[in-house]
Model the fold of this input.
Amino acid sequence: MWYEKDSGKIIKCIGDMPIGCFGFIYSVEFERPDAIGRDTYMGLKQVLSVRNIKKGVRELKAMTDKRGSKKKRVVKENDWLDYNGSCKDPVYLEMLETVPYKKYIVEYASFKKQLSYLETKHLFINNVLDNERFFNANIAGKYFSKDLIWKV
Done:
């Protein structure tokens, strides 16, 4: 089950999201009373999968204009409802099974490029590479927490 971060609204199906939603920025937050150690992971998740697949033999034969595209666009809903994040950290994976947590939707996006931009924006705003609370190890596969040891 997902919750909207600002309103607390429960999101159980794609119908609960804004019309035209392509994906969202999420935050998985563990409920830790001691508040010591890492307890949050942020990322993006596409709600819709868009693929271009080849048309079948029957579809190609039924085409009246042979100059038309030989591919068709298929849009389907992803497994976003059961998604818990792409973090591969063993501590994170163990905490998913043992520690109570909530999944929050931070912001919605209408298209793929906007989704990617919003993820990068939120990761930098929350300073995930320097902040010990976050499990995130990199941003966009380009900026890594291990590279942030500044030599002066």
